[in-house]
Amino acid sequence: VSVPEFVLKFRKFHMGKSLKKQLSVPFNKRKIHKSALVFSDQSVSTSELLKTSFSKEWLLMQRNSFIYVFKIVQGIIVALVASTVFLRTRLHEDTEEDGQVYLGALIFIMIANMFNGFAEATLTLARLPVFYKHRDFLFYRPWHFTLPNVLLKVPMALLESIIWVVITYYLIGFSPEASRFFKHLLIVFLIQQAAGGLFRLVAGLCRTVVVTNTAGSLALLIIFVMGGFILPRGCNSKMAGMGLLVFTSYVCIHCSCCQ
């Protein structure tokens, strides 16, 4: 029996006629139970979704605790190496060469903390397939996933920044004032946050390991080149040296004293 013939026979049958008569009358929505209708994409409240996302992120951080412990140990070793390279109880600040030493210490601190963000790219790439599946199934909105992921990484980044600054600041010989110590700590912490956000963004846009590593390296290269730390070779300008002491980033433009 073909499908059209079966449909025709069913409509002529008394059950088909009864069903057609029932469906011809519009249904009164006031009689339906309120739980049977869905008025939102979310099945639970925003607070419950955030609570669940925070619990999930905390569980994943506990499972990946080896990565965070390894990053802390790596930071301690790199900080000790940097301290021995620039080992001095108090850096001199009289000549242009002294300013170059300051510059070398500052740019090494920036590079070391920026490269810590590569771990965030790897972790984000590993979670992207599950994230897109949950998003397509309307389990939660993207910001429900992103907000706990960012906030729970803040204490870890703050701990790494404190360890780095405590080891390097006075061994390298920066200015001993407490106010400048905490300003330096704040800058290192913000660099770590910027690096983590940058590599999470790159991983979310690229979605593959090869493209993410390439784009992340290119982004770091652009940041280093445009960061204001590059000086022309053979610059003998005393003003450039003084500028390095006053500002953490200084661009020396080719002028008459450099030619």
UniProtKB/TrEMBL annotation:
Its main subcellular localisation, reduced to a broad class, is membrane
- Taxonomically, the superkingdom here is Eukaryota
Look up the signal peptide feature and give its range. none
Q: What keyword terms does UniProt attach to this protein?
A: Membrane, Transmembrane, Transmembrane helix, Transport
Q: Which residues form a coiled coil?
A: none
Question: Is the keyword Acyltransferase in the record?
Answer: no
Q: Where in the cell is it found?
A: Membrane
- Transport among keywords: yes
In terms of InterPro entries, this protein maps to: ABC2_TM
Q: Where is the ABC-2 type transporter transmembrane domain?
A: 49-233
Protein name per UniProt: ABC-2 type transporter transmembrane domain-containing protein
